[in-house]
Amino acid sequence: MVPSFYGFGALIVRAAFEAVGGFFEPLGYYCEEDELALKLIDRGFLVIYDPSLQVVHHEYSKGRDYRIIHRLTWRNMMYITVARYPFILVAPALAGATFRWIRLAREWREFRFRDVAWGFHALLRRLPELVSQHRPVQFETLRQRRLWRNRVVAPPLLEPDSLMIMAGGDNLNH
User: Fold this and answer.
1) 81 with 127: CB under 8 angstroms?
2) Cα dist. 140→49, 78, 117, 130 in Å?
3) Alpha carbons 104 and 98: distance in angstroms, whole number
4) For burial by CB atoms within 10 Å, which of 52, 131, 145, 165 has the most?
């Protein structure tokens, strides 16, 4: 079992997808799988990684702008925090996401102060919508995901008709 997955190679049981309300629209792209996995795990579904599956993901020939990718990832992690974390954890999780993003941006030598303003402006602009859609997961769900990030957890034996998610790809742990 894994705490999250990348969507370029995922098979999701429709009943599980619908039970948790599908993807969280405010995210657009980047981290939408992480938010979906969070809701699935919270509702008792499993995210299973099968390393035997292979997915070929062809990149755009002009490459990627990692500064924009990292900036959008940080913004979306802030959106997820407001919408899915218990209120008592929102402020510390926002601070943690921001410090992780700054550290990464500095390591990649792409940090710009205007990006900080952009991120917080985006959060403040969407804050009423995010708060109105606040459906916090359980503390135990966050604890489980944190534990799973650093180790492989074998899934329990499943009945063939059990609802689950199966994810495949090259690297499913963020």
Assistant:
1) no
2) 21, 20, 33, 22
3) 10
4) 165
AA letter at 152: V
pLDDT given at position 56: 75
Q: How far is CA 147 from CA 7, 36, 141, 152, 167, in A?
A: 22, 18, 10, 9, 19
**The tokens of 32 are what?**
């939408």
Judge contact between 134 and 82, C-beta under 8 A: yes
Helix (H) or strand (E) holding 103: helix 87-107
Cβ contacts of residue 2 below 8 Å, gap of 6+?
Answer: 37, 47, 48, 49, 148, 153, 167, 172, 173
Tokens of 171: 């690297």
For the stretch 58-82, pLDDT in tens is 777 677 788 888 899 999 999 999 9
Tell me how far apart the alpha carbons of residues 167 and 101 are, in angstroms, rounded to a whole number: 26
Question: Residues with Cβ < 8 Å from 3, sequence gap 6 or more?
Answer: 37, 41, 47, 144, 145, 146, 148, 149, 173, 174
Task: Give the Cα separation of 30 and 73 in Å (integer).
Answer: 6
